[in-house]
Amino acid sequence: MKIGLFKSIVILLIVTTFVGCQSSRSKQVLSNPNIVFIYLDDLGYGDIGAYGATEIETPAMDALANGGVRFTNGYASSATCTPSRYALLTGVYPWRNKDAAILPGTAPLIIGTDQMTVPKMLKEQGYKTAIVGKWHLGLGSGVVDWNERVTPGPNEVGFDYSYIMAATQDRVPTVYIDNGYVDGLDKNDPIKISYTSNFEGEPTGKDNPELLTMKWHHGHNNSIVNGIPRIGYMKGGENAKWSDVDMADHFLAKAQAYVKENANKEKPFFLYYAMQQPHVPRTPHPRFAGKSGMGPRGDVILEADWCIGEFIKTLEEEGLMENTFIVLSSDNGPVLNDGYYDDAVEKLGSHKPAGALRGGKYSLFEAGTRVPFITYWKGTIQPQVSDALVCQIDLFASLAALTGSENTISDSENLLAALLGVSDKGRNELILEASSRTAYRRGSWVMIPPYEGASTNKLVNIELGNDTVYQLYNLDEDISQLRNVAGKHPNKLKEMVEGFNAIRGH
Ligand code: NG6
Ligand code: CA
Predict the structure, then answer these.
(1) In this predicted model, what pLDDT tens digit does every residue of 129-186 receive, in sequence order?
(2) pTM of the predicted protein model
(3) Backbone angles phi, psi at 440, to 5 degrees
(4) How far is CA 40 from CA 328, 438, 497, in A?
(5) Considering only CA atoms, which residue is closest to atom 4 of ligand 1?
(6) Which atom of ligand 1 is nearest to 332's Cα?
(7) Is there a contact between 74 and 370 (Cβ–Cβ < 8 Å)?
(8) Phi then psi for 463, rounded to 5 degrees?
């Protein structure tokens, strides 16, 4: 194994209290491994084999899960994308930032350029840093001119290199942005974007159904790109528009190229590989179309898994597996119909995207935020299943501890020992968020305060967790949250409400 010129070791001392006696385990860990986040979009707790899926095969993700720590209580910070990504990169609870909600493609950057972030912290520790894939944290500081350098963006919050899509695959602009510049833009065909009104003469999903190769179910009826109606209006930039079916290969190639360029250099690297699958529109490459028998949603999960396998192969070829710490997770739980007719519901069969969990994307119930959460580090992490309560918000403090950074963020807990599988101690408590509503988990208990609003989002057919009364569940006995025991355990409820208020500041 070749590694960088500077190799340093951190000694992790774990003290565990047993009945009456103390035992300590210590472990030597390389303090500056390469670090990779593989982050999927809308992948559910039950969507991969290692988490119980039987109807879909995900060998690459399973290999990481079965060769590393597979967390059963691993959480995204929120049940939607932008807030989860905000927390992942900043270590700050997303409900502290009122702008951390699903953003349009024209939204300004919601991370302050003076704010500490995972990539900034790692840069201070001598890392090179990169993002390839979905951003969705806003760009610019007001009105963006997509024909000039789009800034501030990822490069201004800590990434040396960025190759991104601005928001989501279903939102304009449908172009890649390379270190702030729209990739492949012809200056004679400038891009115009609006989220309020169409550009004269441009077809839309609403008015031109004859031009569509994918039909919209709700929303998604503005500009048409590659036969797919999107959210938002776009004109120009023809040469720069992405090919949806090639997006997975395209991001994979960029991620692989980055690894190859930065392998075994003086500085270690941090790569945030933010995949677009299985978010809508689900556009598998023809190699994967029809392969899952579950329609495009299943097909793009196969595609994502293949990409992860290829990406890991690159790490192997470069001899990096033993000095690369990998975290794999998802930004929120699963959804079937998220706005297009794509057979996700019709062809689901007996697959359970959320496993035994209730709810899904957008939900305060468990399936909104509890997601696959895997850490892998060949030779350093012993394969195991961990029930420790961990959250993506903790990656900041945990990586600070690993790399010797003194930076702290109060919402982010140092769970390095749990992430490395040398302790089964996770957080004691966690605030969960879904579209600015919040709930509280402590131990095996979850408390959801009363919220107005529909109990189910009928368009996506997901129970949101809203009720007129307090809800209390004991996940040890009732993982599917079917029995609200608030009435039966008034003292527990009181304790949970107090714990929740202490953090939320009510
Ligand atoms: C919703 C979109 C949904 C998806 C989501 C963002 C409609 C009707 N629905 O507003 O399709 O794009 O935003 O998903 O437009 S996320 O994973 O990026 O949070
Ligand atoms: Ca998402």
Answers:
(1) 999 999 999 999 999 999 999 999 999 999 999 999 999 999 999 999 999 999 999 9
(2) 0.96
(3) -135, 125
(4) 8, 23, 32
(5) 338
(6) 17
(7) yes
(8) -75, 130
